[in-house]
Amino acid sequence: MSEQPLAIIDSGMVTGVGLTSAVSCAAIRCAIDNFQETRFMDKGGEWIMGCEVPLEEPWRGKTKLIKMLSTALFELFEKHPKLNTEEVPLLLCLSEHDRPGRVIDDDNTFFISLLDEMEIEFHEKSRVIAQGRVSVSVALARARELIYKKTVPQVIIAGVDGLLVGSGLSVYEDRERLLTSQNSNGFIPGEAAAAILVSRPVTDGEPHLICNGLGFGVEPSTIDSDLPFRADGFVQAIQEVTADAGCSLGDVDFQIASVSGEQYWFKEASLSVLRTLRERKEEFDIWHPADCIGEVGAAIGPVMLSVALTAAKKGYAPGKNVICYLSNDDGKRAATILNYQQNSRAA
After folding, report:
1. Is 194 helix (H, G, I), strand (E, B) or coil?
2. Mean predicted confidence (pLDDT) in 62-79
3. Phi/psi at 106 (nearest 5 deg)?
4. What is the pLDDT of residue 295?
5. Are 103 and 165 in contact (CB under 8 A)?
6. Which of 193, 239, 204, 20 has the alpha carbon at shortest distance from 93?
7. Digit-coded pLDDT (tens) for 170-224
8. Which of 15, 161, 215, 257 could staple 325 via S-S, CB 3.0–4.6 A?
9. How far is residue 154 from each of residues 151, 165, 245, 346, measured CA to CA in Å?
10. Neighbouring-strand partners of residue 215
11. pLDDT of 344 over the 90 cut
12. In this structure, what are the phi and psi dihedrals at residue 28, rounded to the nearest 5 degrees?
């Protein structure tokens, strides 16, 4: 076990299949999706499929991102009414600055707009982490530092993103990355927001999901590269995360990945396991929530952690140990090992 474990206490979530964490996780468990025709058309003259979050008004752009994120955060606050946000840093996960279709032109302005919308303040150690899908692992590493070295009792990690933007979809269609009437090897765009509350674990009789390990890597053969593909980035991340958690991949019961429709990501997940798994396993399930909510960019990390937490609490997870894989288009890779412990609770 890591010397600096983190307890994932609770979550809030807004997706195309549910406006709360419980509803979203139930839909994902049942493999229910909300893929519908969008207002965007592909080059073949057919409507592009997507997974849109159905809010009460037809907000778009930054406004909708703020509305989704504030809804997810308020759900978390409702579960923990005594939470003093001024004492809790918010680590906000956003898309990469060069991501096609990014509607946030200034991260700090977006953060301030969120505070104005919610009429609250967070701890001065709050920050934006604009590193796409791997942002949540970077945020967990930062949360470790804040909790164990800066004596901050709790940290909120949140992510929000959306790919239902015409300019971005056009770029992905030109790169043959988008699922269209003319391309079957592509992703379905979606949008989502999710937030988790983390703290130091304390032995106190209550069960919680514990983050025991973090690992990072860089894949030289990216999805747009012609270099030979060996899944070196995930192999590196798996080696780091298992060393940090003090276990082997064989000790893990199942997997959750950020893969979202394109064959490249599934091949990478399979190859990385083939290169690192030393024990024979009868089953090694891999879950991918994007099958239900679409490609949601930087929001997928907190969504995956919320799915893992709910599955553990509800008792339908294949086991107590899970590894989460996260991957960026630019080659950044991250892995997190989680363990559901029955005898510990967050302070």
Report:
1. strand
2. 98
3. -145, 120
4. 98
5. yes
6. 193
7. 999 999 999 999 999 999 999 999 999 999 987 656 678 999 999 999 999 999 8
8. 257
9. 9, 34, 21, 9
10. 335
11. no
12. -65, -40
